[in-house]
Amino acid sequence: MTCHKRYKIQKKVREHHRKLRKEAKKRGHKKPRKDPGVPNSAPFKEALLREAELRKQQLEELKQQQKLDRQKEQERKRKLEVSPGDEQSNVETREESDEPKRKKAKAGKQNPKKLHCQELKKVIEASDIVLEVLDARDPLGCRCPQ
């Protein structure tokens, strides 16, 4: 889409919104009236109030039931995602992953800088291409201090 067309569309939208706002101002703002409730002189006032209260309670119970249904559905989906066969394989992988953690814990007791240098050397030796990335926000910080 060309810039001319895009700007033209934006201009039309602005004009349309301006017209809508202007018409809304002309119509004026009417304050919504409050419900006065049931007058005291009305017959069966108590019955009407009880019915209204019952409706309110039923709506609340319905919302609560829907909420529980959604939670049960989510739990059921979670259980389906983790099937029994997966749980056994997860236990096996956890046991296998414990061994490297123990080795890392022993290595972590060494000097962290020395450990970092060793890891860096391993990565550089194993790589085919090495890229050096400079921070464009601070190029002087990435240069040699000489």
UniProtKB/TrEMBL annotation:
InterPro entries in the cross-refs: Gnl3_N_dom, TRAFAC_YlqF/YawG_RiboMat
Protein's cellular compartments: Nucleus, Nucleolus
Main location: nucleus
Keyword Cell wall biogenesis/degradation: no
Bias (Basic and acidic residues) ranges: 57-81
Region (Disordered) location: 1-45, 57-116
GO terms for MF: GTP binding
Keywords, sorted A to Z: GTP-binding, Nucleotide-binding, Nucleus
Biased composition (Basic residues): 1-33, 102-115
Name under which the protein is recorded: Guanine nucleotide binding protein nucleolar 3
Organism of origin: Mus musculus
